[in-house]
Amino acid sequence: MRANKAESLARMADWEHGLIAARIFVDEDIYRRETERLFLRTWNFLAHEDQLKRHGDFLSAYMGADRILVVRQSDGSIKALLNACRHRGLSVCQADFGNAKAFVCPFHGWTYDSAGELKSGPNLESCYQGKLDKAQWGLVAVPRVESYKGLVFGCFDPEAPSLLDYLGEMAWYLDCLLDRRAGGTEIIGGVHKIRVRGNWKLAAEQFAGDNYHAIMTHVSVGSAWADHQAGRTASGFAKILGQPGRQFSSRQGHGMAGFLVKSSGQPSFAGDSSISEDQGIVADYYKATRAEAADRLGAERANGPADGAGLVFPNFAFLSMVLGSSTIAVFQPKGPHQFDHWRWGIVDKAAPKAVKEAMFRCLHVWPIGVADADDGENWGGIQSSLDGPMARRLKFNYQMGMGEEGADSAYPGMINPHMIGEFPQRQFYRRWLEYMTSENWPAVD
């Protein structure tokens, strides 16, 4: 039975031939398998350290279908706890974030401290006749919590490699966002949460390196921002995507696509699309700090891929210096037919106040104001199409750019020398298939 299931999944995710079955986006059994075999094994994004400054600061997160409490401890460390009371399983915290000395289950009043230890409850001694060992009934802790330059991840699988090894070559690219300047990054603007009709993989694969969609999906942005006197027209995205750039993909399933910085020192996306004073402020800031970034990271990372979109497998995404803002995001699955899209603005901690304020305003234009709405329409439309029994039998074409990928001495990982292609998507589903069909943590060959 297990062999048959693996063979069936391999036929549905035929990454070698660039054919992906529509069924993987709608099947309830496949989703349940993802919650067990994928999200319980991979490193899942939980928080940015900047969100948890003081002892007792907490926020709610998810690891697949499981709700998690992420809490700053008295010794400065960060713990992740399964947000489920050990008595009957009700969430002990309903808030999205805050600061608390204790978490109290609203059902029977079992009370846990910030480390998840069971401390008290109504009449515990008399009701259990002194036989309850509270030390054995604390909240279940996520056994592995690690950070990479401010980003906190958790993993349930003891066999998984360290976070740094899991990121592999992607860490090189993440540094372009996280480590441009001393002091790292901070979150701006709180969290933006959007409930999306669609399968979470549609969003994940797009951020892994799908620039192709922008030409058509975001054409309305180009039309709205067209300025014929200044030479900017509605064909702007097609022109932008023709500029020099690279796609990167990793055997771990990570991927991204980014532009190379122009000789002027301005990021390609920001320079050609800057239509506002705020975007100009941000573009000038990146140009002014480029030399510092080069000293820290090297010329290759200061010069690109410096601005673009990326994905840490399976569901953590980022945009770096796109139209005046940088963001991090996560796609939280809520069954096969919908997911929550959470997004935060992120900025160099050392950036001047005026730059942070400009990036905050740009954030609410792009991506939150226009791009997220465009993408959500597509993802929801796909899911509606797949309500039909014939549509669910389709195999989708992921063959763009086959054979173009290869090594590049300037950049780690496998590289597509073009900005448009589907190699990162094929690698995403290759890794997805390995998790879905392996009994243990799937090693990378």
Task: Give an overview of the whole structure.
- This protein has 445 residues and is α+β, with helices and mostly antiparallel strands.
- The chain has two domains: 98 residues, 3-layer Sandwich (Rieske Iron-sulfur Protein); 273 residues, Naphthalene 1,2-dioxygenase Alpha Subunit, Chain A, domain 1.
- It is built from 16 helices and 22 strands.
- The strands form five sheets. The protein has a nine-stranded antiparallel β-sheet. Strands 6-5-4-7 form a four-stranded antiparallel β-sheet, with no helix packed on it. The chain has a three-stranded antiparallel β-sheet with strand order 1-2-20.
- Helix 2 crosses helix 16 and helix 11 packs across helix 14.
- It is globular.
- It starts with a helix and ends in an 8-residue tail after the last helix.
Present the secondary structure layout.
Layout (H helix, E strand, L loop, with lengths): L1 H11 E2 L4 E3 L6 H11 L5 E5 L8 E7 L2 E7 L5 E5 L14 E3 L2 E3 L6 E3 L4 E3 L3 H4 L16 E5 L2 E5 L7 H5 L2 H9 L6 E13 L2 H8 L4 H6 L1 H6 L11 H5 L4 E5 L5 E5 L8 H6 L3 H12 L1 H8 L1 H5 L3 E6 L3 E7 L2 E9 L4 E11 L4 H11 L7 H15 L9 E3 L8 E3 L2 E6 L6 H15 L8
Antiparallel strand pairs: 1-2, 2-20, 3-12, 4-5, 4-7, 5-6, 8-9, 9-10, 11-12, 13-19, 14-15, 14-22, 15-16, 16-17, 17-18, 18-19, 21-22
Helix pairs in contact: 2-16, 11-14
The geometry reads as globular
Which strands sit side by side, in order, in the main sheet?
A: 13-19-18-17-16-15-14-22-21
CATH class of the largest domain: Alpha Beta
Q: Summarize the amount of helix as a percent range.
A: 25-40%
CATH superfamily of the largest domain, called what?
Naphthalene 1,2-dioxygenase Alpha Subunit, Chain A, domain 1
**Count of β-strands:** 22
Residue ranges: pLDDT <50 for 5 or more in a row?
228-234, 263-274
Number of domains: 2
State mean pLDDT (0 to 100 scale). 89
Give the helix tally: 16
- Which fold name corresponds to the CATH topology of the largest domain? Naphthalene 1,2-dioxygenase Alpha Subunit, Chain A, domain 1
Please describe the biggest sheet, giving its number of strands, its sense, and whether it closes into a barrel: 9 strands, antiparallel
Rounded to the nearest angstrom, the distance between the terminal CA atoms is 26 Å
CATH architectural grouping of the largest domain: Alpha-Beta Complex
Specify Rg, calculated over alpha carbons. 23 Å
